Structure prediction request, 71 residues.
Amino acid sequence: EFRRVLFRSADTVRLPIIIDDAFVAFDDVRLRQAFSLLNKIAEQTQVIYFSAKKEVYDLIDDQKIINLNEK
Prediction:
């Protein structure tokens, strides 16, 4: 249901999706699945994901990461 609503709204209005460490309790398998879905969504709309979890860095292309600790 979440995916359907997300894609439907992305087709009509191009608003960014902002997520603040929503997957912090996920194990590695679920975290990879969640980011696989986010990568597909990011093809259509901007996704901003905030995280303090180091494992997230391994799941995202380095060119797509902005480390706020370095700015």
User: Anything to note?
Assistant: The longest strand covers residues 17-20. The longest helix spans residues 28-42. DSSP finds two helices and two strands in the chain.
